[in-house]
Amino acid sequence: MKKLGVLTSGGDAPGMNAAIRAVVRKAIYHNIEVFGIHNGFQGLIDGHIEQMDIGSVGDIIQRGGTILHSARCEAFVTDEGQSRGIEQMEKRGIEGLIVIGGDGSFRGAQALSEKGYPCIGIPGTIDNDIAGTDFTIGFDTALNTVIEAIDKIRDTASSHERTFIIEVMGRNAGDLALWAGLADGAESILIPEKQDAMEDIIDRLKRGQERGKKHSIIILAEGVGSAFDYADDIKRTADLETRVTVLGHIQRGGSPTASDRVLASRLGAEAVDLLQAGQAGKVAGIQNNQLVHHDISDILSKKHTIDMNMFQLSKELSI
Ligand code: ATP
């Protein structure tokens, strides 16, 4: 392989820059030319492509977001859009593409691979909702951002003796809520994979109050529903006042943690090795701290599973 392309797609995630850097540097290390595609699949269709060198990725390993920018692109779901994308790469002699993003982005990569154009996916999303990898790039940073925010809210919860419901991101996955809840000693964790009955949530709040507990934290994954609806339900059912905080987009930004930088560096380099070895239609991941790769079709047909032992533990530790 002489030339490869790299793009970021879907929601941005801290560590995407570290992954871009690894792709560019590893490729150049192997004497492969690298082309950065701006604005995800939209930039691919539009030919917004430029060659990168060692210096293009200097001073970015510590930065959140993505220097290549990201976009959602409806046109790429069509046969015409995908063919146009392949055309743009072929006319520049680019022989393979690395796609950093979430499952939607992998569908785009799969479509190209099915058309005979080699693609490798790298999981980059704060949601940790991709099968075939224990962690996605950005999850650890988002988790630490959430924990820092909850620690601050806890100060107010404790000073004013209040119960807070904190809504965190994660789309349809509960990992961010579960890990944050365990790391922050939340009274209840509400995740899409295991919904607790309202009685259980209220029981926990009441038991806490009975033993003199002055404040409580409930963490709710956005995939479960709105924190405001839960606050209304708790008020209606048990006449308990709660305060709601929706953390929102602060969870997506910030400088990546060491863990995300290392993961991004390993996965970025692995993706280059896979393309160079003639692999196509794969997603690089990490399982039990070992680099792995799986067919994109397998990744897309399976659901990322949550560690139910962790969920059980969170209950046992917040009796
Ligand atoms: P996140 O998890 O952060 O949302 P994502 O990669 O899942 O990231 P999406 O918006 O679902 O984000 O997908 C990103 C882009 O991938 C879409 O805008 C579209 O260009 C492309 N894409 C999604 N689904 C398909 C598909 N079925 N075929 C081709 N391309 C697709």
Automatic annotation (TrEMBL):
The record's catalysed reaction(s) read:
beta-D-fructose 6-phosphate + ATP = beta-D-fructose 1,6-bisphosphate + ADP + H(+)
Keywords, ordered alphabetically:
Allosteric enzyme, ATP-binding, Cytoplasm, Glycolysis, Kinase, Magnesium, Metal-binding, Nucleotide-binding, Transferase
Q: Which SUPFAM superfamilies match?
A: Phosphofructokinase
| Binding site residues for ATP | G11, R72, C73, G102, D103, G104, S105
Q: Has UniProt tagged this entry with the keyword Phosphoprotein?
A: no
User: Any idea which positions bind substrate?
Assistant: T125, I126, D127, R162, M169, G170, R171, E222, R243, H249, I250, Q251, R252
Q: In which pathway does it act?
A: Carbohydrate degradation; glycolysis; D-glyceraldehyde 3-phosphate and glycerone phosphate from D-glucose: step 3/4
- Which ranges carry the Phosphofructokinase domain? 3-275
Its EC number(s): 2.7.1.11
* Positions annotated to bind Mg(2+): D103
Activity control, as annotated, is: Allosterically activated by ADP and other diphosphonucleosides, and allosterically inhibited by phosphoenolpyruvate.
- Using the UniProt record, name the top-level EC class of this enzyme in a single word: transferase
A molecular-function term among this protein's GO annotations: 6-phosphofructokinase activity
Please classify the protein's predominant subcellular localization into one broad category.
cytoplasm
Q: Which InterPro entries did the record assign? A: ATP_PFK, ATP_PFK_prok-type, PFKA_ATP_prok, Phosphofructokinase_CS, Phosphofructokinase_dom, PKF_sf
Q: Which residues form the active site?
A: D127 (proton acceptor)
Q: What are the required cofactors?
A: Mg(2+)
- Provide the binding site for ADP: R21, A22, V23, V24, R25, R154, G185, A186, E187, R211, K213, K214, H215
Where found in the cell?
Cytoplasm
Source organism superkingdom: Bacteria
Please give the function described in this protein's UniProt entry: Catalyzes the phosphorylation of D-fructose 6-phosphate to fructose 1,6-bisphosphate by ATP, the first committing step of glycolysis.
Q: Which family does it belong to?
A: Belongs to the phosphofructokinase type A (PFKA) family. ATP-dependent PFK group I subfamily. Prokaryotic clade 'B1' sub-subfamily.
Q: How does it assemble?
A: Homotetramer.
Stated name of the protein: ATP-dependent 6-phosphofructokinase
Which source organism does the UniProt entry give? Lentibacillus kimchii
> Per UniProt, what is the name of the gene that codes for the protein in this document?
pfkA
